[in-house]
């Protein structure tokens, strides 16, 4: 049962989401603007976002933690490709040691937010679960700014295609996003449907315990073996100390990530050949590499899947796991019937079939009474939406470590607040000033989870500041070093601010 309450409180900045982006945003905000009040609303009952939500075997990062970690907090563990428990401990340590924990409100789900230009503030509708009562109440919080750090996919629902005959299967069907704590797969035949990052993580993690694990893929994905430990990074921290060694390793890995991406984009044939060579080297002689690990698309048209210490290939080589490239005709009572005529026997079927994209946590927005359609908006510097005042969001890189971009966006957001303070403004809104500006999807990936959501996502333009850059060095120039002042960013003072103007402070922009 949902009860309404008339209680309304106000904060300067409301951060939505207590995962890696939300904790980072809170750190930068309180460091650069200690006098501003803020709160973090988290729909779930724990911090950590992805790293607390997913509980499937072997869950780990697919980026190195020297770049996926925060710039301001060294990653001290020996593993560069780290397990979820280590990442979660790192995030919670960051939150605790900076006093961010005290600002988090758990079981607070943002439903919608309404902007008033006259008041220069948002009024946010929140569903709050009442502890110990099993009921919800509706509360309102007002804020001058919203910073949405809720990620890009639905936390309550993964994506599973409609498989013919699914109800016939007498075994258990599991989606990785909702992994049962008591799932017993010891000695059992497991078929994992999918070939993305989740699937290639699950296969080696389950292979030692299960009777046999089969990864069933409709088409191959690029899989790149990488060392789980970064020898250079560990040596640098030992010789130079945690902070200097971490900074050096971070710079090295940023260059490395960018080089791999540029090689793939400029010389796709060479990149394809190199990846195939690395795969073949880890697999048994005569293994059909081209059948199972040679995608039809070019490298980085979709994300590369990293496998630490070639664990996927080792599981295949040992005979504990196998890969089948085929299409599903129907589920049967005992497994899956394939187009080739082959039948895969299974006790458990894991549908590692992807995510459902959902920006802004599913919240609705209105500006002065007019609903905001995300599909009609254009992303400004990949952190604001055209026509939506005082609203920022965190969206990281898809071709590199997510957090590299989020850190720069947080810095830019804090600089924007400083500029507004200096000039006495309390409203900032991005507007497209060119007529007929060409647009394209905000995400330029061919992955299925992206293609399914294109009609619900914002657009991007062809050039700055409307282009969603995936280049760290470009973003350093624009977000960290570039001017806040921009012809596409309009500033104003509300009637309330005019009546009680803020003192102007000369600050660099």
UniProtKB/TrEMBL annotation:
InterPro entries reported for this sequence: FAD-binding_MO, FAD/NAD-bd_sf, Flavin_mOase-like
This protein's UniProt keywords: FAD, Flavoprotein, Monooxygenase, Oxidoreductase
Keyword field contains Cell division: no
Cofactor or coenzyme needed: FAD
Entry's family note: Belongs to the FAD-binding monooxygenase family.
Protein name (Swiss-Prot/TrEMBL): NAD(P)/FAD-dependent oxidoreductase
